[in-house]
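Hi support team,

I submitted a single chain yesterday and got back a structure, but I'm not sure I'm reading the token output correctly. Could someone confirm the output below corresponds to the sequence I sent? I've pasted both exactly as they appear in my results page.

Thanks,
R.
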Amino acid sequence: MTSYELPKVWKWEEENSEKGGNRPTAGSRFEKKLPVGEAPFQLYSLGTPNGIKVAVMFEELKEAGIEDADYDLYMINIMEGDQFGTDFVEVNPNSKIPALVDQSENPRMEIFESGSILLYLAEKFNHLIPTDIHGRNETLNWLFWQMGAGPYVGGGFGHFFAYAPEKMKYPIDRFAMETKRQLDLLNQTLAKRPYIAGDTYTIADIAIWSWYGLLASGKLYEGSYEFLNMEEYPHLLEWTKRINERPAVQRGLEVEYQSIEE
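Hi R., thanks for writing in. Yes, this is the structure output for that exact sequence:
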């Protein structure tokens, strides 16, 4: 492995003029209008684990017969840099999917971060979040756990296992260990109760399934099911299978994205 001499001040040396390329600066990079449909909710997203969460949430709301949860879904192609267009950055200054606009509020409500969107929708429609203080607290415990733990799986394990230009033992070992610790935590929790936060299905299940359920299904990173020895986590696998079979979850995975191009 090539040795690395730590500079006193880090400088960005990888010039990148591509619209979607990583840069050490925030903000919009070009003018780009987003389409706005007639539905109460406008969702700008992509079929990644974080994006899937919100599509599943909307489909669960519709499954429950909540007519006011109609939404228009538009694709934000992060490889093409759509997330850095002016309209998208206005909704989400952090330039990450998903981003949601609630047109039923006056003025309109702009919500970003997948966990915040799930909580907003759950509270707005009083669905998939317990009303008792203990159940609500436990649901939020696990919702925020996922928001904090997920980057170790995606940006950590997933990046070095599947996407880094070369395989490096130290980061793979480090993030595989943390990912397996998280999988063991979920497996132990689900050995005691049918759903993440207790006896009922909540937004905590949606948030966690979208990352760890897909990982447990072998659908996130090729070869990771065997590499992580997922058979060690039978309770997690059983929960994953049950969530996979929910009609709203299946629709959330298959929903069609509209183009943002005119």
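A quick pointer for reading it: The radius of gyration is 19 Å. Let us know if anything else looks off.

Best,
Support desk
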